[in-house]
Amino acid sequence: MDIGIIGGGSIGLLFAAYLQGVYEITLYTRTKKQADELMQLGLTLKSDGLSKIKKVKVVPIFEGIAKHDLLFIAVKQYHLHEVIPLIQDPEIPLVFLQNGYSHIKMIKQSALQEIYIGVVEHGALKHDNTTVEHTGLGVTRIAAYSGKLKDFPLFQREISMFPFKAEKDFQEMLLNKLLVNAMINPLTAILKVENGELINNPHFYLLFKKYFEEISNIFEIENREQVIDHIEQICLATSKNRSSMLKDIELGRKTEIDAITGYIMESAIERKKPYEMTAIIYSLVKGMES
Ligand SMILES: NC(=O)C1=CN([C@@H]2O[C@H](COP(=O)(O)OP(=O)(O)OC[C@H]3O[C@@H](n4cnc5c(N)ncnc54)[C@H](OP(=O)(O)O)[C@@H]3O)[C@@H](O)[C@H]2O)C=CC1
Ligand SMILES: CC(C)(CO)C(=O)C(=O)O
């Protein structure tokens, strides 16, 4: 089977490293420079203190996207508007891997026909153009947006350290991940702390709980105890992590605040729910970004 992956960042490189060898992989990068470096040096995967080099076919995206049996989209939310129009064949089965929720609106408006939504629970960190580190072993959850889940090809073969799991409801799956990212990412970015500090510092924990009240009211979450326990578990399991939004701010990069907190604010307005804390958090991150 022939699989394409768009985006040579943390997630695109991680997917290419694990899937190459099991499938025929083509990785599409934004620049020719990265494509040349990867073709010359190979792709290095660091995991558990070990390094492996994989030979992967890499093509700069401006040369065009070929026909594939499956195409993963591993760019940030805010690059989707550039990437979606480059997909000329509306019949290629696609998997969107973005955090947040705003890609669903874009997908709805597109002519694309067979779409799967993915939620990545692995940690990945790109060191340079040819090296990625697997910083947290997780799972990739896949739900059908259009198309049939039973037809999703990657459930048929197990890949060591890189499992895929089927989920029935893409909305529930994405909302669960959205809540995790909405609670952890902006708060850690504003407070400039590792994830565990949101729970371990009693002052930050009060803020965390107060913010959860607002978000759970916006989405009318019923099993609140269970949901907040799950988010706290993730904070503790990743307690030494600097969240992706904190890293984006530290490196002077654009964040995914619009797709995460911006989406929550839009939902609050639609549902006529109070969203004062969400609005403050949104403005603080936007202000730090600019
Ligand atoms: N990193 C992680 O651990 C996790 C990330 N995610 C989600 O996965 C998504 C991707 O994240 P991540 O990999 O970390 O992001 P990165 O910023 O590391 O990678 C995004 C990549 O997309 C490339 N890109 C941008 N525009 C284009 C284009 N027009 N054509 C081709 N490539 C393009 C960028 O290229 P260039 O570098 O040249 O600009 C970059 O290499 C995000 O939505 C994130 O929230 C989810 C779970 C975990
Ligand atoms: C789960 C979490 C919060 C881990 O840091 C994450 O997904 C991120 O940083 O984007």
TrEMBL record:
Broad EC category: oxidoreductase
Domain Ketopantoate reductase N-terminal residues, every copy: 3-146
Entry-linked PANTHER family: 2-DEHYDROPANTOATE 2-REDUCTASE, 2-DEHYDROPANTOATE 2-REDUCTASE-RELATED
GO molecular function: 2-dehydropantoate 2-reductase activity
All residue ranges annotated as the Ketopantoate reductase C-terminal domain in the record: 169-289
Naturally occurring in which organism (per UniProt): Peribacillus huizhouensis
Keywords tagged on the record: NADP, Oxidoreductase, Pantothenate biosynthesis
Family: Belongs to the ketopantoate reductase family.
Name recorded for this polypeptide: 2-dehydropantoate 2-reductase
Protein's job: Catalyzes the NADPH-dependent reduction of ketopantoate into pantoic acid.
Enzyme Commission code(s) on record: 1.1.1.169
